[in-house]
Each structure stands twice: as C-alpha cells, then as structure tokens.
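From: lab user (bench 3)
To: helpdesk
Subject: output format question, protein + magnesium ion

Hello, I'm new to running complex predictions and I'm not sure whether the block I got back is the full result or only part of it. Here's what I submitted:
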Amino acid sequence: MPQFDITIAGELNLDLILYGLPDELAPEREFLADRMTLTLGGSSSIVAHNLAALGSCVGFQSRIGDDDLGTAALLPLQQMGVDVSRLRRVGGEIKTGLTVILQRSAWRNMVTYAGTIAQLTWDDLDLDYLANARHFHVSSFYLQRALRPRIPELFREMKAAGLSTSLDTNDDPDDTWESGLREALRCVDVFLPNEREAQKAARVDNLEAAVGTLAEMVPLVVVKLGREGALAQRGGERFTSPSIKVEAVDAVGAGDSFDAGFLHEYVRGADLTTCLRTGNLAGAFSTTRSGGTEAFRDMAYRHKFFREHGRGSRV
Ligand SMILES: Nc1ncnc2c1ncn2[C@@H]1O[C@H](COP(=O)(O)OP(=O)(O)O)[C@@H](O)[C@H]1O
Ligand SMILES: [Mg+2]
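Helpdesk reply: Thanks, we reran it on our side. This is the complete output you should expect:
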C-alpha cells in the first residue's frame, strides 16, 4: 500500500485579503480597508490542506523562504496533518511568496510576489516520495516557472510508477496558454480548469467547443462553473452537478477547494456524480469564510455544513 492517498508538488504562500475598498483607487490617495485576513494561499497548498481536512493522507513538496511568512504559511498545513517532511526552506534574498487580494463586492484584484513559488525546481523534488501515493496533483502550472519545463516529465514519471494524475493550471499571468501545457496534458487523467481556463487551454471561445476539444486530449475533463456548479466530460459522457446555495464571503480558493473535494472522492473510486457533488460542496463551503482554508480549519463547522448540505457524501 502506498504511504499517501495524494502527493502534490507546488507552491506554498500566504494570501493577504483586504475587504471594503472602492473599485477605483486614485493615485496618491490613501484608502482604508474595513477588514483583512492573512491566510494560507497558493492553489497547491490550499488543495493539500483541504484534502487533509476531508480525511485524505497527503504528502506535499514545496520550497519556501527561511522567513516569517514561510513559518506562517507552514503552520496551518502542519496543524491539518499534511506531511511536509520533504519541503525545503531556503534562506537568501528570495522570500516566501505573497498574494495581495483586493476583494470587491463581485470581483477582485490579485497581485502576486512570486518569490520562492517560481524557484521550485526538479532538484527540490524527491520522486520516490511523490510516487509513494495513489494519485499525484499539480496546481498553478504557470506560476511554477522553474519547474514548468519538466512538469510533463514529472507526470510521465508518476504515471510510470502507477499513479493517476491531475492538473489545475489556474490562470496564466502571461495569457499565452502555451509552455508545454499540451504535452503535460498527455499524461494527465483529470484536468480541472474553470470555465475561462478551459476555453483558453482549448483555444476556443465557447465552453462546449472547449470541453469537446479537451475531452479528446484527457480521459476526464472537469470544468468549474462558479455559481453554476461544475460539469465533467468523460469521452462522450456528460455529468453535471449544481452548486450549493450559500452566502459567499469571497471565492478565494473556491476552485482549489473544489479540486480537494473532487479528488478526495476520485482516489477512493467514487462515481463521477459523487465526485462532482463533493467538489461543489467543498467549493461552496470555502466561500462561506475568508480565503481558501479558513472554513476548513473549523472542524465542527465543516461537519455541520457537510451534514446539512451533503446528502450522500461520505465526507
Ligand atoms: N458563489 C458561489 N456559491 C456556491 N458555490 C460556489 C460559488 N462560487 C464558487 N463555488 C463553487 O466553487 C467551485 C469553483 O469556483 P470557480 O469560481 O468556478 O473556480 P476558480 O476558483 O478556479 O475560478 C464551483 O464549481 C462551485 O462548486
Ligand atoms: Mg482555480
């Protein structure tokens, strides 16, 4: 039996979320936010954290700075029981990454100092450790600047070792949607874009055409549709699942939480309807508190929410 359900290689950083700012920020003026949260950020680390919260056994490899932000980012993963024994802390000028999010009522600005996110390299990874799992996941393809050229090779190694694999690209800050994405997708079992990312990755401008194109490239395409829930396409088969009605605080990390819910079921061999339902449950749940993991840190709250909204779910 492998040691882990899922291993993840990727970024660990913090999100600083500021609420209550006007949409327009004039130069040279000072603006007051009415609320702030400093919380675990990074798509990879949010997926790792929330998988562990749901009860999956998770191994996580990353690279952070030997600084206070790194310590603050690491703590919630440790508290949730994610194995971080192979994570590297490297001193020097390049610090742990930070994303500043200006959350407006219906949209947000995001500014990222990538720092050590872009420094993670092939040499930081222990392939035997990563392969000691049933499933391997990569998030934030375009932020992994140093590792990205070898991500296709990484997926190939994991497939050769018998693991199933998944990828959530998240956004491409350069908006090119190239850099070996198609090569990486050849070794991916589950591709988890949102609606915009699906169209960008497929190079078409409507969702149906995107799903059709992507379904010819990967065995399972799962598209996150925000308030509309999610859909999955496996060859010619379509599965859909509505979202869960909630009062959303913000959607930071909703897609990553969806990934965690979906993959938690997927590695246990659940049917796709159950995978989608738990993905939607986890995505909606994350929106009810600040950031991507604050809701998941409160176990009593999570049990109550999943009991009330998650009929048929095992988590
Ligand atoms: N306002 C919302 N209400 C309920 N569920 C939501 C809401 N926003 C997001 N979700 C859930 O989170 C998932 C991911 O959100 P989405 O915004 O599509 O992804 P991403 O964060 O990657 O852009 C959705 O598929 C849905 O299940
Ligand atoms: Mg996303």
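A quick orientation on your result: Residues 4-11+43-96+117-309 form a domain with the UDP-N-acetylmuramoyl-L-alanine:D-glutamate ligase fold (CATH 3.40.1190.20). Let us know if anything else is unclear.
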